[in-house]
Automatic annotation (TrEMBL):
InterPro entries: HATPase_C_sf (IPR036890), HATPase_dom (IPR003594), His_kinase_dom (IPR005467), HisK_dim/P_dom (IPR003661), HisK_dim/P_sf (IPR036097), PAS-like_dom_sf (IPR035965), Sensor_HK_Regulatory (IPR050736), Sig_transdc_His_kin-like_C (IPR004358). This is histidine kinase. PANTHER family: HISTIDINE KINASE 1 (PTHR43711:SF1), TWO-COMPONENT HISTIDINE KINASE (PTHR43711). Keywords: Kinase, Phosphoprotein, Transferase, Two-component regulatory system. It catalyses: ATP + protein L-histidine = ADP + protein N-phospho-L-histidine. PROSITE patterns: HIS_KIN. Gene3D superfamilies: 1.10.287.130, Histidine kinase-like ATPase, C-terminal domain (3.30.565.10), PAS domain (3.30.450.20). It comes from the Bacteria.
Length: 780
């Protein structure tokens, strides 16, 4: 019994050991499975979390049409409850459009049968969202045999972006096509170079410029518009533009259509590494610029020759040009002007040179001048009176490009001449009113323009009548009752018509009803008017009548001489006496103190009157045949007296008057006054013909038979044909020495006096060699 019990115990112990070992193994396996389950649970939770956060939601479609999908996808498709069958999704028109549902159903069927993946865009009905469905056969791990897994992605934003990009691409494509068309139709050559700087595209203008057949041929041949081997050529310019990373322009010549043209080559680097380019033909622009430059230079050269000062300022108000008269007028230095001073600084420099009008507010005055640049009315004109009496006419013209052109014209001389003219007019009026003769000036239309008081008083006209400037016909009718023969009133119109229309001087004698006689004449004036003069010859007529009664025979024999002397005495001496008298009164201050210029005018009148008196004496000497009182005449004394008389005239012209009296001169028998006058006339003639600082030599010598007087000068001389007529009294007005002074009556008078003494006179002259007159007088 005990032995059985031990065996039983041993077996029970073994069984218990096996049980314990099995329990341990089971515990180990359970713990291991539990750890695996925990890991699987964690992985499932992680995958579920990733699935929930995934942008895509999966749907499994089984072979029998059942579907498995998460709640998130059902919400995305717009289902209130999660559907269980595919028909509830693709056949539900409330979810998809019928066409889109059929497309999705067809693609799922194809995937189930042929394992063909698909991509379909679907849009949930009533939703603005777009879904991208990507399907493929379900893998074995899904445990859906014959099923399909479909991933739905929310492609709303990406689809919108795709749509936007598509529209933008279409717009860019249209713009590219338009730009391509524009480039092809552009009138200027245009091209594109690739990264290797080879021609990749050219337009039609480029093809025409290089005489190519078409763009492909030109690109294939690499025809360059400009010689590529020339320094700074197109390749070098394109390379430089690409390296600099900015557009570049060079000016290069090219031959287009057989003519040489100047081009502006523009190279523009592109982000692709290529370079775009275009060429602008500037040949006409260059020619225009050259023409403008030449025109500007010619204009400036012309402005430098003007007497007016011209200055030009640019749009920035700096000096761009001024001519030489401007620099002299305002004492501007060239080195100062080279700095292109501003307008205000130029005005300040003028003020420093005392060449601006004196103004109290110079800044304000200067600000007003600045407005010249913006003058809307065009040119502005002003008159400036500068210190020292200079008068300027200033014209400021704003320029279209914004600059200013200012012209300064010196009117000082014109103002002085106008003042002198006014003075002369007053002198003329005063002279007219105080002349002995009655004077009237008639215009070309016969109207009375000027008259003196004696003219009005002679005819007894009212002041209002003459101030109405009547025509000669009306004046003749008014004067007819005062004539002894009223029918002769038409003579006045005939005289005025002859002087104004026929330009002929005519005269006549009239008698007034009161017995007075007048010599009337109409003289044509240079301005087309006529001067009508009336000289009262009543006394002369009475004297003539008395002489005619007492010495009829003498008057008949010497009628020409008497008429000439009478005309000279009354027509020349009487007005000269009046002029001299009034001039002496003016010069003496009887009419009040005179300004210095008026004193000079009076002295000039007196000098001219004295000279004219001498000329009258010379004329009278020519007409007289007086009996000479012949006595012994000492030639040395006569020559010295003549030289002293001429000396003032010589000194006034700074002429060296030398006198040489040889001891052989001696005496001759003759009239002392006439011989002295002959020598004086020769000396005066020589002095008058000489320019300043000339030389006159008076030489006297003699022989036993006669004496010789030589007067020589170093003046301009005379031509031979004029020298032959020097002593002819009737051609004096046409003969001149040196071309600037008439000979006068000196030489004819000298010849007359010498020949009256039985002597001879000879003139020798050559142009540029001076003149010599030789007089030989007999002793007896």
């Amino acid at each position: 019994m005990i032995q059985v019990s031990q065996i039983s115990l041993t077996i029970a112990g073994a069984v218990l050991a096996l049980l314990l070992t099995g329990a341990g193994v089971a515990l180990f396996v359970g713990l291991r499975a539990r750890a695996a389950a925990a890991r699987a649970t964690a992985s499932h939770a992680r995958l579920e979390a990733l699935t929930e956060q995934s942008p895509a939601a999966a749907m499994v479609v089984r072979a029998d049409g059942r579907v498995e999908l998460p709640r998130r996808l059902a919400d995305l498709l717009g289902f209130d409850a999660v559907p269980g069958q595919l028909d509830e999704i693709v056949g539900n028109e409330a979810v998809f459009e019928a066409s889109e549902g059929k497309v999705l159903e067809r693609e799922i069927a194809a995937a189930q049968k042929a394992a063909r993946p698909f991509r379909v865009i679907v849009r949930a009905k009533g939703s603005a969202r777009t879904l991208l469905a990507i399907g493929q056969r379900a893998p074995d791990s899904v445990r859906a045999p014959g099923g399909v897994v479909i991933w739905f992605f929310d492609a709303t934003e990406s689809q919108q972006e795709v749509t936007r990009l598509s529209q933008e691409a279409a717009r860019y494509r249209d713009a590219f096509e338009a730009l391509t068309g524009l480039i092809q139709s552009a009138p200027m050559p245009m091209w594109y170079r690739d990264a290797t700087l080879k021609l990749a595209m050219v337009n039609n203008a480029y093809v025409a410029a290089v005489d190519g057949r078409d763009a492909e041929t030109v690109v294939a041949a690499g025809l360059e518009l400009v010689d590529a081997s020339a320094p700074g050529g197109p390749l070098a310019s394109a390379s430089a533009a690409r390296e600099a990373g900015r557009p570049r322009m060079v000016k290069l010549p090219a031959t287009i259509s057989g003519s040489r043209r100047m081009l502006h080559i523009h190279d523009v680097p592109l982000p692709t590494g290529g370079v775009a380019g275009f060429a602008v033909d500037v040949e006409e622009l260059e020619q225009a610029r050259a023409g403008l430059k030449r025109a500007g230079e010619a204009q400036r050269a012309m402005l430098d020759r003007l007497s007016a000062g011209v200055v030009q300022f640019g749009a920035e108000r700096t000096l761009t040009f001024c001519n030489q008269p401007f620099r002299r007028m305002f004492e501007m230095r060239n080195e100062w002007l080279a700095d292109r001073p501003e307008f205000d600084r130029v005005l300040e420099r003028m003020r420093e040179a005392n060449r601006l009008p004196v103004v109290r507010d110079f800044p304000g005055w200067k600000a007003d001048r600045r407005e010249w640049f913006r003058a809307a009315e065009g040119a502005t004109e002003e008159s400036w009176t500068l210190p020292g009496g200079t008068h300027l006419r200033v014209v400021a013209q704003p320029l279209p490009e914004g600059g200013l052109l200012v012209i300064f014209e010196d009117l000082t001389e014109q103002v002085q001449l106008a003042s002198a003219r006014d003075t002369l007019l007053r002198v003329r009026t005063a002279t007219f009113d105080n002349l002995f003769e009655a004077l009237g000036v008639f215009a070309a239309d016969g109207r009375l323009q000027l008259w003196n008081n004696r003219f009005r008083q002679t005819w007894g006209f009212e002041e209002s009548f003459v101030t109405s400037h009547p025509r000669i016909d009306a004046l003749a009718r008014a004067a007819a009752p005062r004539l002894a023969n009223p029918g002769r009133a038409g003579l006045f119109a005939e005289l005025i018509r002859a002087a104004t229309v026929e330009r002929q001087q005519r005269g006549a004698t009239i008698e007034l009803a009161d017995g007075r006689h007048f010599e009337v004449a109409a003289v044509p004036l240079p301005d087309g008017n006529a001067l009508f003069t009336m000289l009262d010859i009543s006394d002369r007529r009475r004297s003539e009548a008395a002489l005619r009664e007492k010495n009829e025979a003498l008057e008949t024999a010497d009628r020409v001489k008497t008429a000439f002397v009478a005309n000279m005495s009354y027509e020349l001496r009487t007005p000269l006496t009046s002029i001299q008298g009034f001039a002496e009164m003016l010069h003496g201050g009887y009419a009040g103190p005179l300004p210095d210029s008026a004193v000079e005018y009076a002295e000039a009148i007196l000098t001219s009157v004295a000279r004219l008196s001498d000329l009258v004496d010379d004329v009278l000497d020519l007409t007289r045949d007086d009996t000479m009182e012949k006595t012994g005449v000492d030639l040395e004394l006569a020559a010295q007296a003549a030289a002293e008389s001429v000396m003032p005239q010589a000194k006034a012209k700074r002429i060296d008057l030398a006198v040489e009296i040889d001891g052989t001169a001696g005496t001759v028998r003759g009239d002392r006054r006439r011989i002295r006058q002959a020598i004086e006339h020769l000396l005066r003639n020589a002095v008058a013909a000489l320019p300043e600082r000339g030389r006159v030599l008076l030489h006297v010598d003699g022989t036993e038979r006669g004496a010789r007087i030589v007067v020589s000068d170093d003046g301009p001389g005379m031509a031979r044909e004029l020298a032959a007529k020097a002593f002819d009294r009737f051609v004096q007005p046409g003969i001149s020495r040196g071309g600037d002074r008439a000979l006068g009556l000196g030489l004819p008078l000298a010849k007359q006096f010498v020949e009256a003494h039985g002597g001879t006179i000879q003139l020798v002259s050559e142009p540029g060699q001076g003149t010599m007159v030789v007089v030989e007088l007999p002793r007896g």
